[in-house]
Design brief:
The protein is mostly helical. The protein is 72% helix and 0% strand.
């Protein structure tokens, strides 16, 4: 009898994850740790410290990531209970067709764009380091192709190889960052840090807003990985212990290196403290672990848009990655950064629609959950209101205000509207 060789390529995409494929919470926590230890996180840490002293910067980081993780826990728990990725989990709140044409499309465009951006940041810094430290001139376009392809391969295989990558990379990243910080704090670095006073007094609200904004998109797509969690508790633990220590740690390292080195560019930070090669390794590993998540979520989103078969995820992920690499060539993606930032305002309220639909109106009952056919205009309207609030709010933490507005509007509409054609809960009442 011939044994069928098991493929190492992940083939579960939109269908529920079977129990025998579920993962332990520490393994998923490692994936989240790899996602939050990234170049943008180091830069956000530097930005937070520009407007607050170090003590208040750390407090703002903890509060900001605490808000993000609280949202992630609820979204992750839903995906764990239903076994579905975010784009499917939201198909009752926005409708199955509404999810395809709104969230899936936005995630696909956003993640492909950020894949291209992260690729060129990594490739450009790699070339700069070779030139400045070793006198080697390396073509940026070739660097984009090499690093973009390596990241593509990991995303192509899916959660299995991603888990392995992060279990190796995360400890190494911690070692490099801690070593870099220890060098930066040597001599008079600790005195510089303790005496540091920012040139601008931005206030705690802006510091928290920067911290929240740095990873809120990850909260909205956390179901893509946490659908593999064994249950809601396991999902919550993976978010809590995967994001808070690594995320706040990365932000704090970015702040310390920036204050002590006087520069917010990671490669310059490490070069200024005499560790150019370590800086390059941190850049590559941090970009790699994060960019895999960008390509992975983009692939799932595109599969949902076109309702493809689950086994098409790998090839679709590869295509999304190739598009990202093409955008990175010649720095084309730099022209889209402002556009990608605007898209993040659209992604944030998705968290609120999911929470309001599943946990408040749906009372967290997975057995009663099913996609709403067509478009759920109640969810679409609440989502757009939240997005506009997030974009225009200048008084408090925009993401938090937008989430609150979205939840309130969706709950009110579900109570007022009694027509089952528009309200997925009408029949239950």
């Amino acid at each position: 009898m011939t044994k069928t060789k098991k493929s190492h390529i992940e083939t579960i995409t939109l269908e529920p994850v079977p129990d025998n494929e579920k993962k332990s919470w520490p393994s998923i926590a490692f994936i989240w740790a790899g996602n939050v230890i990234c170049v943008p996180a180091l830069m956000v840490g530097s930005m937070v410290s520009e407007g607050l002293n170090f003590k208040n910067s750390i407090l703002a980081m903890f509060i900001g990531y605490g808000i993000v993780v609280a949202l992630m826990m609820l979204i992750a728990a839903q995906s764990a209970q239903t076994g579905r990725p975010t784009t499917v989990a939201v198909s009752r709140a926005l409708g199955d067709r509404g999810s395809q044409l709104s969230l899936s499309l936005i995630i696909a465009i956003s993640m492909i764009g950020w894949y291209g951006y992260q690729t060129i940041v990594c490739a450009s810094s790699f070339c700069t380091l070779l030139q400045s430290s070793f006198g080697i001139t390396f073509p940026e376009w070739l660097s984009c192709i090499i690093w973009g392809t390596l990241m593509l391969i990991t995303a192509f295989y899916g959660i299995g190889l991603t888990k392995v990558l992060n279990m190796i990379s995360v400890p190494l990243l911690f070692v490099f960052l801690i070593y870099g910080v220890s060098i930066a704090l040597g001599d008079n670095g600790a005195a510089v840090l303790s005496a540091y006073q920012p040139s601008n007094d931005n206030g705690m609200i802006i510091g928290i807003t920067l911290s929240v904004g740095g990873f809120i998109s990850g909260a909205a797509t956390c179901g893509d990985y946490n659908r593999y969690s064994k249950d809601g508790k396991s999902a919550a633990l993976s978010c809590l212990f995967g994001v808070i220590p690594a995320g706040v740690g990365a932000l704090a390292c970015g702040a310390i290196l920036s204050i002590c080195s006087g520069d917010s560019d990671i490669t310059v930070m490490f070069a200024n403290v005499g560790l150019p090669v370590a800086g390059m390794l941190v850049l590559i590993l941090a970009t790699w672990t994060t960019n895999v998540g960008n390509a992975y979520s983009a692939g799932i989103a595109v599969v949902n848009i076109f309702k493809m078969k689950d086994d098409k995820r790998a090839i679709v992920t590869a295509v999304c990655s190739i598009i990202g690499i093409l955008l990175s060539l010649g720095g084309i993606v730099y022209y889209f950064v402002d556009f990608l930032s605007i898209l993040s305002y659209l992604i944030t309220p998705i968290c609120a629609v999911l929470i309001a639909d599943y946990w408040i109106i749906g009372r967290g009952k997975s057995e009663g959950w099913k996609p709403f056919p067509g478009v759920n205009w109640l969810g679409i309207f609440a989502w757009l209101c939240g997005a506009l609030t997030t974009y225009f709010d200048k008084f408090f933490i925009p993401e938090l205000v937008g989430i609150a507005v979205t939840i309130i509007i969706y709950c009110i509409l579900c109570i007022i509207v009694k027509n089952p054609k528009y309200n997925p809960f009408a029949k239950e009442r």
